Amino acid sequence: MIEKNYQPADIEARMSVVWEDSRAFRAGRPDRRDAVPFTIVIPPPNVTGSLHMGHALNNTLQDILCRFERMRGRDVLWQPGTDHAGIATQMVVERQLMERQQPSRREMGREKFLERVWQWKAESGDTIINQLKRLGASCDWSRERFTMDEGLSKAVIKVFVELHRDGLIYKDKRLVNWDTKLLTAISDLEVQQTEVKGHLWYLRYPIEGKTFSPEDSSSFIVVATTRPETMLGDTGVAVHPDDERYQKLVGKNVILPLVGRKIKIVADEYSDPDKGSGAVKVTPAHDFNDFEVGNRHGLGRISVIDKEGCLDLVDNEVYLRNLPEGASQFAEEFHKVDRFAARKRIVERLESFGFVERIEPHTHMVPHGDRSNSVIEPYLTDQWYVDAKTLAKPAIAAVRSGETTFVPKNWEKTYFEWMENIQPWCISRQLWWGHQIPAWYGPDGKVFVAETEEEAVSHALGYYVEQEVITAEQGREMALDRNKREGFITRDEDVLDTWFSSALWPFSTLGWPEDAPEVQRYYPTNALVTGFDIIFFWVARMMMMGLHFMKEVPFSTIYIHALVRDEKGAKMSKSKGNVIDPLNLIDEYGADALRFTLAAMAAQGRDIKLATSRVEGYRNFATKLWNASRFAEMNHCAVPEGFEPAKAKETLNRWIAHESAHTTREVTEAIEAYRFNDAAGAIYRFVWNVYCDWYVELAKPVLLGPDSPAKDETRAMVAWARDEILKLLHPFMPFITEELWEVTAKRDGLLALAQWPLKPSEPTPEQLAMLAAAAGPTDPLISPVLIMPIFDHADFTDPKAEAEIGWVIDLVTQIRSVRAEMNIPPATLTALVLAGASTETKERAPRWTDVIKRMARLSDISFADRAPDGAVQLLVRGEVAALPLKGVIDVAAERTRLDKEIGKADADIKRAESKLANEKFVANAAEEVVEEEREKREAALARKAKLLEALERLKQAS
Asked: Which regions form coiled coils (predicted)?
């Protein structure tokens, strides 16, 4: 029996246990052995993480797809797991050590520190998995993976070794984004550009052969820079080849101030004649653009800033080698001074010698680490790289050919732009937590890449014996005795970028590189649901790795969802204090209400403006369904064995069958097209408006009346339609629907495994052949009953029933609307005249007179050839229905009221349009503020349109 009150928390806890105990979400269930697989991999959340609104949206949409396809008979694998999140996890544990005043990781040593990280992972690393279960995620939790599991680690090592063997992984000395706080390289994608108010320093560089004088402009060239501290590493000055001011100076040298080193003036299009002085200093070891300029002109690279962001001069061989005689004392003066403190002191020294022409305020973008928030330093260092350009070519072609498609399609442009301009991927990180790079170095620095240390030792000993560095006998002894080779080769201490292992996720989680049957059955996956912010981090890299190692795209569809913002459209952030915690919403309103809210607002390409009131509204929606189900139970509504809704005789019952079929088709087609909001909207309208507001209300006289065949049929149909609702709603609101199914349907089996309402027709031989070819020769015989998406829909229609009940609903709805517009009190009954009614209307009206009078607050319904004078005329399905309102309302007073309301709407429109027409307002106001004004204007325009319609109707009554 259904409890009186809907209590989400009780239901969610109970249903979670039911699903787990029944293994409902296991892939490869015996009953699905012959079913077509449907695979989705979860974007693995960081093991450090907890559920935020982005996770809630992402996993709700994935769950809708998985529950939908599971009910359509597919063998669904929703692969769950977590990411080790190198930097993030290491930061968490290091912070714990500091807060507890325990030894730091370097004091602790690598082995002990990693033991501590694993301990933390075991204690609290599964937090987000438990939170996803609270959301209702129907993953196959028995297959949960972690990116540093033994099997996944084996896949990572194999991929690294093979890519290195093929020349697609290599080591190179290049500039990287260096985080001076975390002491590691980070990728371009982990860098945030932040607007900073700084300065532009105009510095005088003396021209070689001329006597420098600040008053003699011919004795120097002025360069403009935002980073004076890097000038110690300058190896050139660049001017634009078409800049007439400097053409005679190209090829000559200038003397680097303070240092005295000669550096060349080069012509390069990178220099912009319209910015600064038109001349720029070139520091290839400290600027990415300068690095490229230096490469084009053969300029040297002198690094003067160390890993901690301090000047590194005294022990810097390259810097000292390039110093003029007698300049070493300067190196000692600034050695190990922080870069920003050094900037101030260097500028002071330059000013004292007259080398500063002027200083201007300058606002510019400065790169910051997205985790440390420290200013990123371009740093010249040896790192491991992937030849991403080569790997990207097949991945670009796969999207261009349609093997993989983006939804919405506009994201393909973003994907192409990045992939076609992709740079080498720096994959090494100076961390301890992660997959240690499988590379070992010999005594002369030669690198040996291998899957195991034993294999690396074997390669190294063979090489050094061949090079006669050691004898063959020494080689044999070292191979047999680990102690004798101690220190002969050492392993690279760096670990791999977290995204390297994540790139293998669609196949490493299935057991690759082993010849696991799961790889054959579940790869490639069907769909990837993810946010736009990791298209480059993750999506592109999965495409590259999947095509290279599996020779197939990892997924056929990439659905990109938008951001969840606050109700005003602002991006959620802790600093703004507008973060909405999904777990708090689940506690207050239930997981089903949150899920339905996110799905209902997930329009393609449009950010979600989340208001708590919307979640509360959908909690009320769940309550509405709960109460309707209780009403059905209290009236003994149940589906008898063998009941066929298509054979119903009552018009009302045939109408609900018609509407149910229509909604089923709408919901199915919308989910298939990833239009989650349309699917949610269709089922919401059917439940609230069609079933609860109309069908149950119209059925009440029969249900509450004497026993009869009509009552029996109506009881059966009320229950049948309720069950159809539970099926359609289950992917969106799984907890309440599973509970009501268990309590009311009284059938064997879970709703999660019940058949979707839209039954497939029998496939043609051609369709079977097509699917078998796509599945491949190793797949088992496919059951045609379980092949859903490609077949025609079979559904029930009854246009005649829809015409009759639809007329009743439209008539009552329009009368209610007029009464509301005209401020007619509920107690005041009005007459209705059906003017020039058709034969069908004359036949159906008497059958529904009592219902219409009760629901529309009418005193009488009559027929006439034409509408009486002073009546408001309504057009209902092409026929006139008239409400004589003369004497019922004060027409003059009502007109005055409407005119006043129209005036208010006009004022609101004018106010909003004035702001939106102000270019400064649109350019400077926050995005959410501008959007709010647009919404105000649209709301006022809609309000005015309704008021004008009401005013026009009022004229008919005068």
From this structure: 895-957
